[in-house]
Fold S1C family serine protease.
Amino acid sequence: MMTEQQPNAHPPQSGTAGEDRLGPRPLDRPAVDPAQAATFGRPHGVEGAFDKLYTPGTTNGRTAPPLNLAPPTPESLAEAFRRPPGAEGVLLERPREATAGTDQGPGAPLWTETSDPWRDPASGAVLAGPAEQAEAEKKPGARPAGALLSLPEVLFGRRVQPKALALLGVVALLVGAVGGLVGWWVADTGNELTGTATISEAEAAKERPAGSVANIAKRVSPAVVSLEVFKPGGNSGEEGSGVVIDPQGYVLTNEHVISSAVSDQAVKITAVFIDGTRTEAKVVGADQKTDLAVVKVNVTNPTVLQIGKSADLQVGDTVLAVGSPLALQNSVTSGIVSALNRPITAGGDNGAPPVTYEAIQTDAAINHGNSGGALVDATGALVGINSAIRSSGQDGGSIGIGFAIPSDYAIKIAKTLIKDGKVAHADIGINASSTVAGSKTMGAQVKNVAPGGPAANAGIKEGDVVTKIGGKLVRDSAELLVAVRGRNVGEVVPVQVVRDGASLVVDVTLASD
């Protein structure tokens, strides 16, 4: 009976009949990094293991190419570093302590004839015994004392004759005597407190950048003149300041500075410039109500001051006052704007009516003689004409409260004076006084009304209190006058008044004064 044979799952491998075996896995050879192979791989020409015996001239049984051996040592180096002939048995010096006695101590095994642990085993030099001790070190002894030398022997070596030595001494005495006489003469003829001083002087440059006080003063001072007002043959006169505002020689100043020349033709005005130039000034026009005047000087190419806008000033802005206070020409003081639009009343001396205007208040030092001078801003532009001060005491000195006429208003008046020689001011046609303290309404109370005047035509009556003109607040009579003069002749202005507790507004057409 025959049985059917089943096929095997795995064919039998060679060498073992009838036994199931797995085939070998494929050989996995990962890629080798060339850098690592250069570092850790076998040297060039070595294919087998390192522990195999190596026969020169063969590589794994094959003939290897000849090796590139190092060249022989140069004869000069060999001669310098090898042992000299006949010294093959000479050793280097060993420590002296190692040869003392027969017992060399615990370090003796290191210092043997055949062992040299401190040097390269390939070195040709080995250790030897210590060198012999010098005879002088073995038996130190004192040097025998020699004969002592005399002074001539030390100095001259017995080569100078005694006569020459005596002559040298005499010459030394003469030189000392002459030096003593010279010193005595200098001390006797001179003074111990006088002499030639050696003083160290600083030469560092001063910093004066654009916009500094020094820079502004240098640019502004040539345009500010000193005005001397006097009568020929008189014993006294007045002095003030002025500002050149036009290349033709027009100078703007205060009316009270030249008032005596306006009233008396015999009074002369002299303008003095910063360089000392003196020239006569002629009156062009003067306006007592604004305390402004214009004179003209005959000069060629004068320095003209740049005109600024006083309306752009703010409290706290830096300003400089330039003028001739107390006859001290070309003086400069600095400060700030303390207040703006300050109504003040000044003047009234010697029978002249007081002057009321809206001023710039400053704490820059202003004294008598500064009147008519320039008040300039931080750019050196004219923003005011110095006109008045407020002081305490009899001397009338500056206490840090000065007033200047704003340049916007001053230049407007100056142009009119140059053109016409006089100025016409706007007038409302009333006389008013400030309301008393405790009044219900603060303003300027009308005392009388000019018949047929602007106020009368508008219906303003005596007893009315003016509180506002054209939108500008009026708190006293000075502000009323300033508000009216700031308008033009013929202008229609709304005026607010309080009558019997009721407020009403009337239109007033301003007339000329």
Q: What stands out?
A: The longest strand covers residues 331-347.
